[in-house]
Write the structure tokens for this entry.
Amino acid sequence: MFKKIFKNMSQESTENIENEQLQNENVSENQEIENPVLTPEQQFEEDLAKEKDKFLRLFAEFENYKKRTSKERVELFKTAGQEVLQSMLPVMDDFDRAMVQISKTEDENLLKGVELIYEKLKSTLLSKGLEEVEVKAGDVFNADFAEAITQIPAGDDLKGKVVDVVEKGYKLGDKIIRFPKVVIGQ
């Protein structure tokens, strides 16, 4: 009986060893399939494909860089004079107030002279991209385009609407550089 058990054990271990050898051979065959030995031409083609991919990616990145810097440059030119134009806005406000007072006088030459200077200043600023934000009394108040400085009691017809424009607003291109200051009805 001992012999029989010993014989079965030796047969099992022999079978296990043979199975392990077969598995090792299969694994090495699979590795050879996964990592085949490349000929120099195949290696060269593979390296060429990698370098071509790198080149295309680098070229695309450079094209994106050119587009981005070009867009930034255009934006910079659009708003380059923003500070200068903003500093000119109080002068425009002073001219508006002066025009109201001068129009009350009897001196037509004075009125024509000041109007000429005012229009010249206004057209110069318009040529640089400055535009007035259009808000009038009676318009519905929109916080995106105007700044409410106060509310006053008003009738139902002016509730939530602009009652008076205290200070004009201006925009440079599509960007509002000074919001109009308005009084709204409550």
Observations:
- The longest strand covers residues 147-152.
- The radius of gyration is 41 Å.
